[in-house]
Design a protein that fits this description.
Strand order of the largest sheet: 1-2-3-5-6-7-8-9
Order of helices and strands: HEEEEEEEEE
Number of helices: 1
CATH class: Mainly Beta
CATH topology: Lipocalin
Structural class: mainly beta
Number of strands: 9
CATH architecture: Beta Barrel
Helix content: 10-25%
Radius of gyration: 19 Å
Shape: globular
Length: 152
């Protein structure tokens, strides 16, 4: 190997290591009845819209261990301005099947589980729709404020 090729290999290796140092390690799938502590930091903006609406969520755990999620729904216009209402507060309850997400504490919306999580970077949630054999994986990106992906 020539000295130039050796130098390029070393430089590439160093750049790769520096890049990897800035990417938090992924957390493996969580227990189906819990959420990892890192998920409670900040907000998570869905990467793809659903029915032309963009979602941002965050998770909260109170002192008693009760879980809730705030769900922000955004309508991003062509001018990239966005509108939202007050967030919906959904309850999260452990069940035998996983974590049951109840929309506004009333309606079974989905059973959720963490497929992957890179703290303060990315999140993939698996959603099992109730009474349907349909699973959807939704990718989210970390944000410090409830800002939709159309604005990031």
């Amino acid at each position: 190997m020539t000295s130039r090729a050796s130098y390029q290999l070393i430089a590439t290796s160093i750049l790769f290591l520096l890049f990897m140092a800035n990417v938090p390690p992924a957390i493996a799938k969580s227990n189906k009845n819990t959420l990892p502590n890192e998920i409670f930091q900040g907000y998570w903006a869905a990467i793809e819209p659903m029915q032309e609406m963009f979602f941002v969520i965050n998770f909260k755990k109170d002192k008693k261990g009760n879980l809730t999620s705030e769900r922000y729904v955004f309508n991003c216009g062509k001018s990239e301005n966005f509108q939202t209402a007050q967030p919906f507060v959904d309850t999260i309850t452990p069940t035998k099947q996983g974590l049951l997400l109840k929309a506004e504490g009333k309606y079974d919306q989905a059973i959720i589980s963490v497929e992957s999580l890179q703290p303060k970077h990315s999140l993939v949630l698996e959603h099992q729709l109730p009474n349907l054999p349909l699973q959807i994986s939704i990718q989210y990106r970390y944000t410090v404020t409830p800002t939709p992906i159309c604005q990031l």
